[in-house]
Amino acid sequence: MDIVIRGVQPAEELALSAAGAGSSGKDRSSAWFDAIFREHYARVVGMLARLAGDRGQAEEIAADVFCKLSQRPALGGDRDRVTAWLYRVAVNAGFDALRSNARRRRREEEAGVESLRVAAPSGALEDMLRQERCARVRDVLGALKPRDAQLLLLRSSGLAYRELAQSLGILPGSVGTTLARAEAEFARRYRARYGGDL
Amino acid sequence: MTECWSEGELRAYCDRELPAKDMDRLAAHLENCVPCRERHRQLARQAASVLELVALLPEPEEVTWVPPVPVRAGMRGRWAVAALALAAALALAFVMLPNRIERQAHLAPPPPPMTAPPPAVEQPAEVRPAVMRRIVPRRRAPRLPVLRADYYLSLDDEPIQNGVVMRVALGAAEVKADIIVGSDGRAHAIRLVGDK
Ligand SMILES: [Zn+2]
């Protein structure tokens, strides 16, 4: 399944309703949720997929987080607060997934890494190396504060400082400082674990 | 010489994220201040290294959000009842369908439109759930709509403005399905999902 949400495909038995039907009070009250969903869903899934290394898992987590959000209309009044809440909850859930994935990976490695190496065709070597490098990056991200990992991931996805600030619930003027510290911490931990210059 | 700049400002300068006038002022300052120039060089190098590593993590292919077509079924039903009945029926139906259908679900793209009649399958009576007929109420002799991978079946008559897809496992056979939960917390549509 490479597309999360597709247009709902009407069966021939189902007649299309007139466009714009159903503009009730309920719609108005959920308008804030619609807006947040449209703006952030793909971004949250992207961040979680890169963090946890599993697209399907990322979608599940994102769906769960948005579902929780939809049940908290009290948050809706303040757009910035909602956004910061959304990313905080999502990245924390992503960290849980990352940790359990890492545990599973270690178990699998202990159980079968030798047979895997023997069995791997030569073309797969590059793929294994790439996965190993990704695993290292995830290890180090997982050792950071979740908000630092969030910042590094979203920055590398190309978000502007204004958007980064919103996702962290900080002022745009603080992003440079926070980012510099997060990068220093990442570099320090990466060097400590894996050596190299970085 | 003008006053030195903070680490955060130097870092934002690397990303060209300072206000335009500060960009110019900081650039002029770097011409004359060795410590700031050195600090800026370190920050830029560190940022590039970290970015290069984090960028190794693959971005998922585009996550699309397609505004759904509003769907109208004839009758309003309570979604929870409908979903539960559907779940039970689906679990049964999926288990009992022949391999051909199962493979279709596994190798989803691109499925035929839902208008294709269900293949001739001997289905026990309990596979024809009442809820299916409620969703297709206008048809006198209802043909059972077939749930297939990638096609959602509406559970009520509300146009879906947006929603969150929840992956669920139905019944003891753990048949996977996606349910679209709307912003009101209710399920509005369901589809079967092939195993990955
Ligand atoms: Zn200076």
Sequence-ordered SSE layout with sheet pairings:
The complex is a heterodimer of chains A (198) and B (196).
Chain A: E1 15-16, H1 25-29, H2 31-52, H3 55-70, H4 79-119, H5 124-143, H6 146-156, H7 161-168, H8 175-194
Helix pairs in contact in A: 2-3, 2-4, 2-6, 3-4, 4-5, 4-6, 5-8, 6-7, 6-8
Chain B: H1 7-14, H2 20-32, H3 34-54, E1 71-72, H4 79-96, H5 99-106, H6 130-135, E2 153-154, E3 163-170, E4 175-182, E5 187-192
The structure holds zinc ion.
Can you give a write-up of this model?
The complex is a heterodimer of chains A (198) and B (196). Chain A is an all-alpha fold and 198 residues long. Chain A has one domain (23-194). Chain A is built from eight helices and one strand; from the N terminus they run βαααααααα. The longest helix of chain A is centred in the middle third of the chain and has 41 residues, at 79-119. The two termini of chain A are 37 Å apart. Chain B is an alpha+beta fold. Chain B folds into two domains: 7-54, no CATH class; 82-137 and 145-192, no CATH class. Helices cover 38% and strands 13% of the residues of chain B. Chain B has helices at 7-14, 20-32, 34-54, 79-96, 99-106, 130-135, and strands spanning 71-72, 153-154, 163-170, 175-182, 187-192. The radius of gyration of chain B is 28 Å and the shape is elongated. The model of chain B is unreliable at 66-146 (pLDDT under 50). The chains are: A mainly alpha (198), B alpha+beta (196). Chains A and B meet through β1, α2, α3, α5 and α6 of A and α1, α3, β1, β2 and β3 of B. The site of zinc ion has 5 residues of chain B, from α3.
